[in-house]
Amino acid sequence: MLRRRLLLVLGIGVLLVGVSACGVSKHQAASDLPNASKYEPTLFFHGWGSSYHAEEQMAHALVNAGLTKTIMRATVSKQGKVTLTGRFHEADYHPVVEVDFQDSRNSSPQQWGRWARGTVVKLQHQYHIKKYDVVGHSMGNMAIMYGLLGNSAKMPKLQKQVDIAGHFNGILGMNDEPNRMKLQPNGKPTSMQPEYRALLPLRQTYPRQTAVLNIYGDKDDGSHSDGSVSNASSQSLRYLVAGRAKSYQERKIVGPNAQHSKLHDNVQVNRVLIKFLLGSK
Question: What keywords does the record list, in alphabetical order (predicted)?
Answer without folding.
Answer: Hydrolase
